[in-house]
Amino acid sequence: MGKALIIGAGGVASVVVHKCCQNPDVFEEICIASRTVEKCDALKEKLGGGRTKIQTAQLDADNTDMVIDLIRSFQPDVVINVALPYQDLTIMDACLETGVHYVDTANYEPPDTPKFEYSWQWAYKERFEKAGITALLGSGFDPGVTGVFTAYAQKHYFDEIHTIDIVDANAGDHGYPFATNFNPEINIREITAKGRYFENGEWIETEPLSEKKVYDLPEIGPKNIYLLYHEELESLAVNIKGVKKIRFWMTFSDNYLNHLNVLQNVGMTSIEPIDYEGQQIIPLQFLKAILPDPASLGPRTKGKTNIGCIIQGIKDGKPKTYYVYNVCDHEECYAEVGSQAISYTTGVPAMIGAMLIIKGLWKKPGVYNVEEFDPDPFMEALNKHGLPWQENFAPTLLD
Q1: Residues near 145 by beta carbon (within 8 Å), at least 6 away in sequence
Q2: Model confidence at 114, in pLDDT bands (50, 70, 90)?
Q3: Angle of helix 184-192 relative to helix 254-265, nearest 10 degrees?
Q4: Where is the Saccharopine dehydrogenase NADP binding domain (predicted)?
Q5: What does the DSSP 8-state code read for residue 194?
Q6: Do 336 and 348 touch, CB atoms closer than 8 A?
């Protein structure tokens, strides 16, 4: 049915490749491209020989001309960007030049500023409309599935949504004293930034990790959750009409936070260049180089994740509450695709977003976040492709 160019060869990209190969009727051909072509070749060697034809390519995704040349050579129907968020705009530029649909899992952020917002990518809307192609932003889990969950709730259960609390909980244990479950540079930038939430039309800022609650999550139990800013808050505040309050919460162990505090205090999480023996280095990038590769955590990680949305609003003039969530088992993910659940919960939705574009179900010219499309085919695909969701119509609410 179609061809996909997958840019990236890390943990999430590996899941995307596995899932594309599990769906050869949709993904007849894929090309895996990365700066490190050996990683692409390893994936091809592992998964080649099936019905999905696999090519590999060396690619510097910071170089728009290189991306354009590869797209023109391979001629994909869609580009799945699972590289770094810093590279979103160069890849979008290449898609515009070549007239190819675009999917990513996280919003663009400039390398020198930890700033998470959609303004840069939303600015492409008119150009994608004129080109007649679709850019699907944030088709991971959060952002991604959490937006689809909200759109599904809005379509089927609410006349008005007033409050959304997104809770992302990882109860997995990889056995290391300190490691991050996805790209350390992106992860630590996100966590050490100031928190922010939306209430009554305004954005309220908090000090990093200063807002803490305990929430009892299905299948993993009570966990400390901390308020963060996450990019889907921005798009949901625009696209869910009438919403009054949106917050994002994530779990962290005391051990993780203790290590992070020490690293922060000694300057290892800084993105400001320093001079070391005549060379300019960025401490956070050096820290990334010495921490375990998230793609290596799969065989070590046990436990489960629970990510979902607690929603309050009105139906037929009466207050209504709703909680929709997914529980994912790290060991089951590794047994299926060789990756832990953090990569799995991001990679599966990326594949689904690309699949819906190829099928023509989520395809219209312009730049869109996932909640702007019909949620039903995505929700159906989640159940079919490894991320089944559950519902609770009387959840415990967050104050």
Answers
A1: 307, 326, 345, 349, 370, 378, 382, 387
A2: low
A3: 90
A4: 5-136
A5: P
A6: no
Cis peptide before 143 (omega within 30 of 0): yes
Q: Are 101 and 363 in contact (CB under 8 A)?
A: yes
Could you list the beta-strand ranges (E) of the chain: 2-7, 27-34, 53-58, 78-81, 101-104, 134-137, 160-170, 195-199, 202-206, 212-217, 221-228, 245-251, 274-276, 279-281, 304-315, 318-329, 366-369, 389-392
Q: Is the dihedral of CA 14, 18, 23, 24 positive or negative?
A: positive
CA–CA gap between residue 332 and residue 303 (Å, rounded)? 10
Q: What is the mean pLDDT of residues 19-37?
A: 98
- Tokens read off for 319: 């207050």
CA atoms within 13 A of residue 27's CA, in its CB half-sphere: 28
Q: Which two tokens stand for residue 123?
A: 């600015």
Ramachandran assignment for 165, one of left (phi > 0), alpha (psi -120 to 50 degrees), beta (any other): beta
DSSP 51: S
Q: Quick one: 206 exposed, middle or buried, by C-beta within 10 A (0-12, 13-18, 19+)?
A: middle
| 140-174 residue pLDDT tens | 999 999 999 999 999 999 999 999 999 999 998 88
**pTM of the entire predicted model:** 0.93
Scanning the structure block, which residue is given the tokens 């070549």? 98
Torsion of CA 199, 200, 201, 205, to 10 degrees: -30
Contact 251, 168 (CB under 8 A): yes
Residue 373: phi, psi to the nearest 5? -105, 170
Strands 27-34 and 2-7: parallel
First to last CA, the chain: 48
Q: Are 162 and 200 in contact (CB under 8 A)?
A: no
Buried b / exposed e over 39-73, threshold 16 CB at 10 Å, is: bbbebbeebeeeebbbbbbebebbebebbbebbee
Per residue in 38-95, pLDDT (tens digit) is 999 999 999 999 999 999 999 999 999 999 999 999 999 999 999 989 899 999 999 9
The answer to whether residues 9 and 34 touch, using CB atoms and an 8 Å cutoff, is: yes
